[in-house]
Amino acid sequence: MSFDFTQTPEAFAQALLGATLTVEGVGGVIVETEAYDRDDPASHAFPGPTARNAVMFGPPGHAYVYRIYGMHYCVNVVCGPRLGGAVLIRALRPTEGLAVMRRRRGLEDERALCSGPGKLCQALAVDMVQNGLLLTAPPFRLTPATETPPIAVGPRIGITKAAERPWRFGWAGSPYLSRRFP
DNA sequence: ATGACGATGCACT
DNA sequence: GTGCATCGTCATG
Fold first, then answer.
1. Whether the Cβ atoms of residue A75 and residue A117 lie closer than 8 Å to each other
2. Which residue has the higher pLDDT, A1 or A70?
3. Count of other CB atoms within 10 angstroms of residue A62
């Protein structure tokens, strides 16, 4: 069993739920994602290729990392049948390297370690060094879900354009989400 | 419980 | 100069 990175971002975002993502052996199970498409006003790919989004226009299966608000990072999985698609990883259920993640985050509460795109990058120590790296090779490890979790759907968070598209997906009922679903 | 705000850096117009 | 795919803290109901 393996990933099909050429699925549409909308489909792949759901396939990623339940998968395990680690960096240097630290990470957990993906419980929340968002899809971004090439022809999507909310996507970094929308304006076309630039220095920042170059990885989105490269081969699928690689990590697109960007800095946001001057102090946080977010990771995406590049995917899709054509260039410019990606899935934002928004939350994990921490399972590996809990002690390391607690130290990096300066927190005890397991539920808060990776419950947001910026939080999980801090917990897994993801920054621009990982931008463009293949997600199925070290330091990353990305293994498919063994079973399909119950999926919740809702509008994406923190965007102003195309805000009505229901392209946020989550493991229904998980206590490790960045926010609850409507 | 929900909402406002400031921190902080850089890509893009 | 503007605007962020955010987070933590503080305030108010």
1. yes
2. A70
3. 23
